[in-house]
Amino acid sequence: MVDIRNISKSFGRNQVLKDLSLNITQEGVTAILGPNGSGKTTLLKCILGLTIPDRGNITVHGRDIRKDVKYREDLDYLPQIADFPANLKVRELIKMIGELRHRTTRENELIRFFELQPFLDKKLGTLSGGTRQKVNLVLAFMFNSPLVILDEPSSGLDPVSLLRLKQWIHEEKEQGKVILLTSHIMSLVEEIAENIVFLLDGKIYFSGTIARLRSETEEQNLEHAIAALLSGKCLVR
Amino acid sequence: MILLIPPAVYGQKTEVCNTCQTRTITGAIKKAAPFDTIVVKPGTYREFNIGITKPLTIIGEGNPVIDGENKGEIITVQSDHVTIDGFTIVNVGTSYTTDYAAVRVVKSRHFNIRNNTLRKLFFGIYLEKSAEGKVVNNTIAGDAVNEYNSGNGIQLWYSRKVEVTGNTVQNVRDGIYLEFSDDIAISHNKSTGNLRYGLHFMFSNNDIYTDNLFENNGSGVAVMFSKFIKMHRNTFRKNWGPSSYGLLLKEITDSELSHNTFENNTSGIHAEGISRVTFTENDFADNGYAVKVRGACYHNTFSHNNFLYNTFDLSYSGHINENSFNSNYWSDYRGYDLDRDGTGDVPYRPVKLFSYMTGQVPEAIVLLRSTFVGLLDFSEKVSPVFTPAGLLDHTPEMKKNTW
Amino acid sequence: MLKIIKYSFFDLLRSKWSYVYFLFYLLLGSVLLFLNNDLSGAVITLMNVNIILVPLIATVFGVMYYYNSGEFTILLLAQPVRRRTVFTGQYLGIAGSLALSLVLGLGIPFAAYGLFRSAAIWDFAVLLLTGVALTFIFTLLAFNIALSNENRIKGFGYAILLWLLLAIAYDGIFLLLLAHFQEYPLERFALTATVLNPVDLARILILLKLDISALMGYTGAVFKQFFGTGAGSLLSGLVLLLWIFVPLWWLQKSARKKDF
Question: Which ipTM score applies to this complex?
Fold first, then answer.
């Protein structure tokens, strides 16, 4: 699904990704974890074509992402910060993003699911952070693409909405989708992810299932397992 | 007693037409006795060198045409008390040695040239050493292209006490030209589209011109080397061109200008060597330069005029100001009137630094009204360096002057 | 691209700043016309606004909009849309809404004044046309600067500096050069320098309608001859278009390489 080969990226003198390779084909949720500045967001942005690697290739669905932008027809993205044009109405924004792709959308289902109906005719600038995040989620899931990239999906959500989000991701998994996400909330990761990619200083320190991570670090708790990875800094394959 | 009664009442009446006994104007004149009246009926009369040497009234009825067929001068008057009324006179001969005219008046008095239409001409009406006559309501339409082979519409040479009223002169060299002619009254004429000047004065004194319109002439109106001239209620418009102006005043003394309108001229007034001239209650609107003052201008007064939206109100050469400006209305004035006496509390400085600069570097005109130039002008206004420091209107009006 | 133009246009059209901008022009136009009661005076004041304020506002709005919509731009870029489409669309959206505020804000009072039946309509048309051109040019320059500066303070600084340079400093340098080389024939230089700066070009095009008398004098005749002919107006139009197309090409080029 996503094949990353030997990509490197530096911003000025700061090398963020160092000859990184990763192949994601497994269905379900793959969580990309790592401390701040480890290159998680850069990696996701490389896949999205937002950041251009200095070296290396990325293919999505077997298509070289540098060649053209069509691969993003089958790729959904939830940005970390839900910031939209303040003077558009929720309805208009959803319509606008929907019109950018040539496919059917399922926004009505999502609007009902996240209970956004009362806000449809409000301007985006007047919404609370949590509601904005819900709009963000609608925009991300409405195209029903086989590959979904979520950057901190839980930020700003109240417990009820978070529960719904988990439920939604669960249903997506059942459909056999590939979901890539980053999160700082380990409990969430533990709950919904099958696979972990651990990044540190632009390199992959671990890539595999949660079960494998537990057994290799001999830690049952995910947070402790991550801590063990950090302190050991050993490359576990 | 008899002399005071108009002679025409006494005279015999002769008719001229193509089928009459007398078929030419020349013939009729030859037969006529002094103070007779000759009535010319409609038709075309191919005649030139028509000499009038006795007092006669010649009237064209129904607009007869006298066609000179480009052979030379058409009518020459050499007698007092001659009236020429109602003719269309065409095809005056052109010559490089003789100034042929449609109508020439030589050394005569009490003439009256009126209601004639002159076309295809060299010189139009030429008054030579004549006096106490009238040129009224004539229409002179030339087709001049070059200055060197065209003549003037109405020319006065060594003449006195003549009234030039209600004439329309267009497309000749100078619309009206005066040389060595005094006590002339020029009023209600329209002089437009002429190659050189609408009105041109040389060495003529004590003249008055009022209520005339001068528009679109090569370089406006020129009044030169004269004194005691009165200029009232005239309009000077649209005199555009690299060296064009509404009114050129050169070597003029003791004269008056009031209630004139100068609008849309490259320069409204261009003054050089003038003294004791008063400019009162004139309108200067939308000119490039409203007034350009060049060297040797002393004791002139500009008061109660309106300066409206000119690019430059005043351009000055030199650092010394010997002229006075007071109680004018300047549309560019940005001062205030706290004591409410109708005049601004801060003096107005009509010369801008930028007008000085364009004098030095003409190309700088492309920067007209740019922000940078605005800043320069402002700093010069605060502390004058390049423009005459004493050149101020201390009593700028807050409202337009009316009269 | 049309969709992106449409939505950023609508977004901006509803922003309070658009209203402020629109109301400012409405007020300015009305005050100038109805209190002053003089058309040529009003048009001159408006020309000053045109060559100072319009570029400044376009610059500030351009930079502000770019920085404020950064996150949303990233969302758009993650869609199957080309980068140049996104940026060109956003640019046209903002420039279009600014131009609309300008045209309506000035147009309404002038229409109410009965301008469309008067002869001054062409002066006014040139005023609006150059205002619109300057809006498009300066918004685009601002977009370019913002795109290549992540740091907002720097971006704002450079954009204001560019405005200062084109709207004011350029003429100062120009005048200095004219004064310094006054012994030489300068007409060609003056013409070229005028044509190259969009602010100067806009000013001259309006002046040709207004201060025709002054421009007709002296060398002014040369400029009148140049700009008055078909070839001159064509060239002026072409230069204004170049000021849009070259930065637009540059914007698309730098957008292609940029990391978000």
Answer: 0.85
